[in-house]
Amino acid sequence: MRGLKLGVLSAVMLFASTTAQAQSNMDDVEIKATQLSERVYMLTGMGGNIGVYVGDDGVVMIDAQYKGLADKITAAIAKISEQPIRTLVNTHFHGDHTDGNAAFAKQGVKIVAHENVKTRLAANEKFEREGLPTITFDKSLEVKTGSTAVRLKHYPHGHTDGDVVVWFPSSNIIHAGDLFFVDRFPFIDLNAGGNVQGFIDNVRAVIADIDGDTQIIPGHGSLSKRSDWLRLVHMIEATREEVMTMKEQGMTEDEAVAKGLSEQWADWSWSFITEERWIRTLYK
Ligand SMILES: [Zn+2]
Dihedrals φ, ψ of 33, to 5°? Predict the structure, then answer.
């Protein structure tokens, strides 16, 4: 329950990441590390889940949560490995994954992201310049560390237009970014290149490349498996069907919201993506 509340809070803060209020909330946040394999860890705090890979010559971290948590995250990683953090990968541009970028860049960490992430962050004048990605790519990239490499692959137009899924080497573990919200309506950022069909297609494409034992670090929620991700896809397809039916019957967006989805989806609603917001996303 507590995990769920923190997750809810984190996404509500997507758009409030730079406010003083958000900053003061950071004091109570604990960064918790869970070891998933010899070299891979998942860190939770507030905001998108962080992945950590202990490479041969440094640490690669996936996503950075909020600036106000950077010291705590650095301390948590220092407990995992004595090696310096060399690289920070952003799974996409949203503030609950990138607000901490500048704090890590100032420690000499290289920031890697899809080129659309850099474009969107650069267009946000409130985003600290030091935190802009310095290494960008289009389709895929290998972040080498000694003899191993963390693999990044871009999936177009899903949650945003800059989504990256991360494959950790020598382990059956991936970081899915915000293509995976566990058991709650996902945020699909239609204003930033997100697309419902694209989201489904991308998740199915990744699922085809993993197996039932793959450990999946989701953008939001607890460590999951392929079957948990498929549940999300099925929910999206079924709720979209309901909304499309209403649309075909001539209902307006507001009328569809007023009618609502069938009762079986009630549990997927949460404070950031309520049933109303989810219906509006599907309708559009
Ligand atoms: Zn996001």
Answer: -105, 135
Q: What is the mean pLDDT of the chain?
A: 93
Query: Is the pLDDT confidence value at 18 over 60?
Result: no
Please report which confidence band the pLDDT of residue 1 belongs to, taking 50, 70 and 90 as the band edges: very low
- Closest of 153, 98, 152, 142 to residue 120, by C-alpha: 98
**CA–centroid distance, residue 10 to ligand 1 (Å):** 10
Distance 201 CA to ligand 1 centre (A): 17
Q: What CATH fold (topology level) applies to the domain 2-283? A: Metallo-beta-lactamase; Chain A (3.60.15)
∠ CA 242-244-249, rounded to 5°: 100
CA 228 – ligand 1 centroid, Å: 19
Q: How far, CA to CA in Å, does 130 sit from each of 63, 97, 109, 111? A: 16, 15, 11, 10
Q: In what order do the strands lie in the sheet with 215-220?
A: 140-145, 148-155, 163-167, 173-181, 215-220
- Three-state DSSP at 34 gives strand
- Spatial distance between the Cα atoms of 284 and 280, rounded to a whole number of angstroms: 6
Least confident of 3-7, 46-50, 124-128: 3-7
Domain boundaries, the chain: 2-283
Kindly give the distance from the C-alpha atom of residue 182 to the centroid of ligand 1, in angstroms, as a whole number. 13
Contact 50, 90 (CB under 8 A): no
If you measure from the C-alpha of residue 181 to the centroid of ligand 1, how many angstroms do you get, rounded to a whole number?
9
